[in-house]
TrEMBL record, chain A:
InterPro entries for this protein: COQ10_START (IPR005031), ORF3 (IPR047137), START-like_dom_sf (IPR023393)
Region Disordered, residue ranges: 1-23, 223-250
Source superkingdom: Bacteria
The protein, known as: Cyclase
Lineage: Bacteria, Thermotogati, Deinococcota, Deinococci, Deinococcales
Residue stretches making up the Coenzyme Q-binding protein COQ10 START domain: 95-221
SUPFAM superfamilies: Bet v1-like
UniProtKB/TrEMBL annotation, chain B:
Keyword check for Metal-binding: yes
Entry-linked PANTHER family: DEHYDROGENASE, ZINC-CONTAINING, PUTATIVE (AFU_ORTHOLOGUE AFUA_2G02810)-RELATED, ZINC-TYPE ALCOHOL DEHYDROGENASE-LIKE
Superkingdom of origin: Bacteria
Transcription recorded as keyword: no
Organism for this UniProt entry: Deinococcus aerolatus
Keyword annotations of the record: Metal-binding, Oxidoreductase, Zinc
PROSITE patterns to which the protein is assigned, alphabetical: ADH_ZINC
Listed name of the protein: Glutathione-dependent formaldehyde dehydrogenase
Length: 250, 392
C-alpha cells in the first residue's frame, strides 16, 4: 500500500479477498474462447436484452479467463464489506484542471449526463438532493429513488455524500480530484458504497446481466473524460456498411 | 458506392453500399484514389481477430482527395490530396500529446470490448479493423469517412504518385518504427528480420537507412527473399536450413544484435511448439502461433532487442522467457505511432532515399479485391503487395 498523495491520506483500495483457486491453463483458455464467442455473439445480436445478457456473460467469461479465477470465486468476489454493502471504485486521468472538473461535478443536477444509470438528481437545498435511478431488471416499480446529503465539499478536491435514513438504496460515495504528476491534468477517483437491491444475489445477477456497477462506473468516467477532453463522443453510429444496404441496421 | 465487405469467415466481396456521410463536425469525407490490402487484413479474413460483423467495410491503407469537411474541421480543405494513418488519434489526450498516437485514450468508442478481451486498457481505434478497435468503416471503398480529420489527414504534394506515398499510412512507418525500436548502432549492429512480407521489406530498408552493418532476412517464399536480396540483405530460407544454426553461423556465434519479428500471430514454422500452437489455434484455445517470436528470442545476441511490429492477439504461452532473461534482452512492441513518422518519412521519399512502390506486385480494380485477398493469403503468383483502384 502506498502512502497518500498531496495530503489526501492513504490511498484506499477495496480489499480483493478471493476464495477461489486459480484455474489451470486449459480451462482458462476454454473460458477465454467461450467468452470471446459470446461477447461477439452478444454484440451482434439485434435484441438489446440478448446483447446485455449474452454479451455480458461473454465479457464475464473472458474476464474470468484473463484473471484466471474460478467462476465461483469471481461471483463471490463482488467486493462487499461486513454489512453486505457493495464497494465500487474507479479512477480516470483527465487533461483538465481539478477546479474545472470539480465545478462540473458540484452541479449535482449535471450528474445524470455523467453517470448513465442516473435518471435525475434534484437539488433540494444547499446540502440535500433527491437521486433517482432506473430500477435493475426484474425489480418492480421501474424507478428507485432516495434522498442524500453532502457530507464533504472541498472545492477542487473532494465531494462526498451519504443517503439519508429511510433510503430504498442505502448508499454513500465520494469523488476525489488530485493533480496528476507532470502536466497530465487531474486524477478523478470515485468510490461508491451501497446495499444492493436483492442482496448479494441481486449483485451477482446484475453482474452477469452486464450491469456490473464497476464496469458501469468505468464507462461513465471514460465518457466524462471524452466530454472534457474532446467536447464530443467518437462514434460510428450511422456510418455506411453492407448491413444498411440489406435493410438492416447500419 | 462500391466497397469490399467482410461477409463472414473467409468470405469477402464487393457490394454496393450507401455513401458515407459526416457523423460529427470533426469528420471529413475522402474520395479514395488508391487502397491496399495489408497482411493484417488476412487476420480478419480468417477470423482470428474476433468481433467482425457481416457487412463491415474493410481496409486501413488508403489515400484520396477531401470532398467534404465538417463544421469544426480547421486545417483540412476540400480538394486537398491526403493520406490517413491507419490508426485513429484524437490529438489531445495524454498519449497523443506524447506522440503515442496508437495508444490514444479517446478514439475507440468500443474500449469496453477490447478491455474485456485483452484484460487491459485498449489501444486506439483503427480504420476497418473489427469492432474491438472501434468498428470504424474502412477505406477499401470509393469514399470513406475520416474521423478526427484535422489530426488524421496529411496533405501530400501533387507531384508524388499515389504508389510512392500510399504506404506512409501503415507498412512503411510500421517497418521503420520496428527498426528504430532496435536502437541500432550504425556500422556495428547486425539486424535479423523474420518475415519478408511488406512490413519486413520496409523494416529491412529502414534498418539500412538507420545504419545497420548488415541485415539478414528470414522467410520461406522465394520471391520475398529475392526482393530482400535486391536491397542488399543476406537471406535464410528456414525451410531449407536450421534457422538458429544459420544465424549463429552468420554472426560468428553471437546471434544478430537485434531481431525484428515482422510475422506476428500466424507464424508457420516447425517443431513441437509450432505443432501445439497450430492445434490450439484450430481449437480456438489460442489466437496466436508464435514460432517467429520464439526464434527471435532464441537467436538474438546478448543485450539485444527483439522488436515486434507483428500483430499479436490474446494470450501466448510457451514463450522462452528464460532465454530472454538470461541474455538480458529488451522486448519492444506495439501498434505503430504512424502520425509521428508521416512527415519525416515523406521527406526521405522526396529526397529520393526510398521509393516505397518497390513492394507492389499486383494492381487491379477494386472489383478484383476479393480474388486478390486469396492470392495474397496463399502467396500465389509472387504476390507481395496489392493496390486497388476504386474507380476503374
Ligand atoms: Zn496494416
Ligand atoms: Zn488521443
Amino acid at each position: 500500500m502506498t502512502s497518500g498523495k498531496a495530503g489526501q491520506g492513504p490511498v484506499t483500495a477495496p480489499d480483493h479477498a478471493s476464495t477461489g483457486a486459480t484455474m489451470p491453463g486449459a480451462e482458462r483458455a476454454m473460458f477465454g474462447a467461450a467468452g470471446a464467442f459470446l461477447l461477439t455473439a452478444g454484440l451482434r445480436s439485434g435484441s438489446p436484452f440478448q446483447k446485455l445478457l449474452i454479451g455480458g456473460l461473454g465479457a464475464g467469461l473472458t474476464a474470468l479467463a484473463v484473471r484466471g479465477r474460478s467462476p465461483l470465486a469471481t461471483a463471490l468476489k463482488i467486493q462487499q464489506d461486513g454489512d453486505g454493502h457493495v464497494l465500487v471504485s474507479e479512477a480516470v486521468t483527465i487533461g483538465k484542471s481539478a477546479d474545472g472538473l470539480y465545478a462540473v461535478w458540484r452541479k449535482l443536477e449535471n450528474l445524470p449526463s455523467l453517470m448513465k444509470h442516473l435518471e435525475r438528481v434534484e437539488v433540494l437545498d444547499e446540502r440535500r438532493s433527491r437521486w433517482t435511478v432506473k430500477a435493475p431488471a426484474g425489480y418492480s416499480g421501474g424507478e428507485v429513488s432516495w434522498e442524500a446529503e453532502l457530507t464533504a465539499d472541498e472545492p477542487g478536491r473532494r465531494i462526498a455524500w451519504q443517503s439519508l435514513p429511510g433510503a430504498q438504496v442505502e448508499n454513500s460515495g465520494e469523488v476525489l480530484f488530485r493533480a496528476a504528476p507532470g502536466d497530465r491534468g487531474t486524477e478523478v477517483a470515485v468510490h461508491l458504497n451501497y446495499r444492493p437491491l436483492g442482496g448479494s444475489v441481486g449483485a451477482v445477477v446484475a453482474r452477469i446481466a452486464g450491469q456490473e456497477p464497476s464496469q458501469q462506473l468505468r464507462d461513465d468516467l471514460m465518457r466524462f473524460k471524452r466530454e472534457q477532453e474532446l467536447g464530443y463522443h467518437p462514434t460510428t453510429e450511422g456510418q455506411s456498411s453492407g448491413r444498411a444496404s440489406r435493410g438492416g441496421k447500419a | 458506392m462500391n466497397a469490399i465487405i467482410w461477409q463472414g469467415t473467409n468470405h469477402v466481396g464487393v457490394e454496393t453500399v450507401p455513401d458515407p456521410t459526416l457523423l460529427l463536425p470533426t469528420d471529413a469525407i475522402v474520395r479514395v484514389t488508391s487502397t491496399a490490402i495489408c497482411g493484417s487484413d488476412l487476420h480478419l479474413l480468417d477470423g482470428f481477430i474476433p468481433s467482425m460483423e457481416k457487412g463491415d467495410i474493410l481496409g486501413h491503407e488508403f489515400m484520396g482527395e477531401v470532398v467534404e469537411v465538417g463544421a469544426d474541421v480547421k486545417r483540412v480543405r476540400v480538394g486537398e490530396r491526403v493520406i490517413m494513418p491507419f490508426n485513429l488519434a484524437c490529438g489531445v489526450c495524454d498519449p497523443c500529446r506524447r506522440g503515442l498516437f496508437s495508444a490514444c485514450d479517446n478514439s475507440n468508442p468500443n474500449h469496453r470490448m477490447a478491455e474485456a478481451l485483452y484484460g487491459a486498457t485498449s489501444a486506439s481505434g483503427l480504420f476497418g479493423y473489427s469492432h474491438l478497435f472501434g468498428g470504424y468503416a474502412g477505406g477499401q471503398a470509393q469514399f470513406v469517412r475520416v474521423p478526427f480529420a484535422d489530426v488524421s489527414c496529411f496533405a501530400i504534394e501533387s507531384d508524388l504518385r499515389d504508389d510512392s506515398v500510399l504506404f506512409l499510412t501503415d507498412i512503411f512507418p510500421t517497418g521503420f518504427q520496428a527498426a528504430e525500436n532496435c536502437g541500432i548502432v550504425p556500422g556495428r549492429d547486425v539486424v535479423a528480420v523474420f518475415g519478408a512480407g511488406p512490413v519486413g521489406q520496409f523494416a529491412l530498408r529502414s534498418a539500412q537507412m538507420l545504419g545497420a552493418a548488415e541485415v539478414i532476412v528470414v522467410d520461406r517464399v522465394t520471391e520475398r527473399l529475392r526482393l530482400a536480396e535486391a536491397a542488399g540483405a543476406r537471406t535464410i530460407n528456414y525451410e531449407q536450413t536450421d534457422v538458429l544454426v544459420a544465424l549463429r553461423e552468420a554472426t560468428g556465434g553471437r546471434g544478430p544484435d537485434h531481431v525484428i519479428d515482422a510475422v506476428g500471430l500466424e507464424a508457420h514454422g516447425h517443431g513441437p511448439g509450432a505443432l501445439l500452437d497450430t492445434a490450439e489455434q484450430k481449437l480456438r484455445l489460442s489466437f496466436d502461433r508464435i514460432t517467429a517470436l520464439r526464434w527471435a528470442i532464441l537467436s538474438c545476441a546478448k543485450g539485444g532487442t527483439v522488436s515486434m511490429p507483428g500483430v499479436y492477439g490474446g494470450l501466448v504461452d510457451k514463450l522462452p522467457l528464460g532465454a530472454a532473461f538470461s541474455k538480458g534482452l529488451t522486448l519492444k512492441m506495439g501498434q505503430t505511432h504512424t502520425h509521428r513518422y508521416v512527415r519525416p518519412l515523406l521527406e526521405r521519399i522526396q529526397q529520393g532515399e526510398i521509393d516505397p512502390s518497390f513492394v507492389i506486385t499486383h494492381r487491379a480494380p477494386l472489383s478484383q479485391g476479393p480474388e486478390l485477398y486469396k492470392t495474397f493469403r496463399d502467396k500465389h503468383d509472387g504476390c507481395i503487395k496489392v493496390v486497388l483502384d476504386p474507380w476503374t
